[in-house]
Amino acid sequence: MQCGVETMNDCERSPGRTGLRVNFTEKGEVKERREKFLTAKYGTHQMSLIRKRLAVEMWLYDELQKLFDPPNEAVDVDIDEILDMDTDDIRRSHLFSLLSNSSCKRSEKDISKFISDLLDRAKTL
């Protein structure tokens, strides 16, 4: 929208400015209204847990990329599934079978170290 101020006579202005008027001209269509999103605020403790979880997931992603030669063939490891298992022995055997059945070209020593590191990090969650 454009605002213009016109006077009856630009040369002669009255002290009370009685001849002033404002004209609004429409300039195209009105832009669509912005979408509003509601974002949740988390408490300090909850944000700390979220950051810790995110750090473990990012570490897991990076390590899986290192384990698999072409990264697009990486295995999807679900942390929640690992955490829901009862003991570390069950977790370890599940992860080992998951990684050994895939196209992982690393040695068993590298896989065992990855599993141990993952289990240590999972205990912090």
UniProtKB/TrEMBL annotation:
One of the record's GO molecular function terms: protein serine/threonine phosphatase inhibitor activity
Protein's UniProt name: Protein phosphatase 1 regulatory subunit 14B
Superkingdom, natural source: Eukaryota
A single cellular component GO annotation: cytoplasm
Recorded family membership: Belongs to the PP1 inhibitor family.
InterPro entries (UniProt xref): CPI-17 (IPR008025), CPI-17_sf (IPR036658)
Keywords, in A-Z order: Phosphoprotein, Protein phosphatase inhibitor
Source organism of the structure: Polypedilum vanderplanki (Sleeping chironomid midge)
Keyword Phosphoprotein among UniProt keywords: yes
